[in-house]
Amino acid sequence: MSLNCNEINLILSELDLSGSFIQDIIQPGFDTLALYTYKEGQAKTVLICTAQNSVRINETRRKIPKNEKPLRFMEFLRSRIKGCRINSCQQIGLERVIKMVLSHSENEIFNLYIRLWNNAANVILCDQHDLVLDTMFRRPERYEVKDEVFITPAVIEEKQEEAEIRFPVRDWKKLIAQEKDCPLGEDCSFNQFIDYWYSEHASTLSREALLEKAEKWYNINHSKKEAALQNLLAKVEAFKNAEQLKHQGDLILAFGYQVQAGSKFLECEDYETGKTVKLLLDPKKSVQENASEYYKQYKKAVTGSEELKHDIEIAEKSLAKLDALYEEIKNEQNPVKIEQLLRRDSKPKQQQKKNHPGLDYLVNGWYILVGRDANENDELLRHHVRGEDLWLHVRDFPGGYVFIKARKGKTVPLDILLDAANLAVYYSKARNAGKTDLYYTHVKYLRRAKNGPKGLVLPTQEKNLCIEPDKKRLARLDSLHEEMD
């Protein structure tokens, strides 16, 4: 339920904003705006909400949290109307559209329109001739975009007595008396009641509705992360027989003389347990080759087990971070802050979709792109890097391409180069090879191999880099990548 025209007039009369100065503007969310005003030694925070079923304007005593990244409309308003004097603030007829006339001086006047319609709420800043400068929501179909003339609603004349009958002000004192655990007394203002009522009961941007949304969000994300962790733990269990694989390779070498040509099994006595065991063999391979295959599986299991420890640690940290955020949400009393915490984790779909394949890392202002296979390498090389960007790749092993995006007037620091080199080794067949050689050069010095496989390039003017993979460095990069996600 939105405010009706008479409720808006009552709120504006209590606010008494004429003659106030706008000291600051905060936009905690895409649909919420707060004006910090000051008049005759009294400060007021005016909350403007355009969320459906929560559309309103009122004074609030709640702390308005700042957004992590400044939003476009807030930055624009700060550049134009911060410090302005509110010459007048009144509703246009009974149309639920508020017009604020603001001024920096006699020569710089603005009209700020606040439309409080449930399905088309908006905040529009115009010059003194109603030419739109910018809007909270850009709506071309309503001509609510820059350089269009804002069309004010046609005022329908109606007697005040009739309007009061058609649009009565809620009996807030009676509603407060009916509320359980309401912190307000019967002598509270209508502004105080509206701030409390919408925060507790509105279908959107109310604490109750947001906590219900938070619970669903938490359950979905927790189940996904828990399943991923259990999958990693299951892999660890599968790797626990690594020593057994090595022992089986030893048995094949010890009793290889018993193997008949073309035999698929070796049946022998285990010299450790005394029991008879049956080992699977590849009839096309020799005894030594079969034993080597068991040793290879052993080495892979040992290496995989070590890498899984790191992955499990990251998965556990991610779960703990989710639990901590949910606890913070449950304990938060300010619904605006709850909405902001939820939005921090749920970005709009257009922001979720990456515009490039592979992985990306942002390290101290340097952007690193990683291709993990031939398709990603080729796509990055064709469409997402430029001549001055740096390219890295391991020598003598197949693997992913790593690119460091160039910054104007900056030379790539050694620490960033080592970060990129470790990623190049990690996403290649040289991951477990120990000390590894890489080469790097600018993208403009890469030439595609004629009739070669997809993504294959021939570098020129390349430089060599030899590194020992650094697990701590990779762990730090993993945590950075998780934060970006």
Could you explain how this protein is built, in words?
This protein is α+β, with helices and mostly antiparallel strands. It is built from 13 helices and 19 strands. The protein has helices at residues 5-15, 72-81, 160-166, 172-178, 190-201, 207-239, 242-254, 287-331, 335-345, 349-352, 374-383, 414-426, 471-484, and strands spanning 21-29, 32-39, 42-49, 56-59, 85-91, 97-105, 108-115, 122-127, 132-135, 265-269, 276-280, 359-363, 366-370, 390-394, 402-404, 436-442, 446-448, 457-459, 463-467. It has a six-stranded antiparallel sheet with strand order 12-13-15-14-16-19, with helices on both faces. The chain starts with a helix and ends with a helix.
Report a brief summary of the structure.
The protein is of the alpha+beta class and 485 residues long.
Cα(first) to Cα(last) distance is 37 Å
Helix content: 25-40%
Low-confidence segments: 346-353
What would the principal axes of the Cα set say about the shape? Answer: elongated
Task: Compute the number of strand runs.
Answer: 19
How would you write the strand order of the largest sheet?
Answer: 12-13-15-14-16-19
Class per helix and strand makeup: alpha+beta
Number of helices: 13
Q: Into which percentage range does the β-strand content fall? A: 15-25%
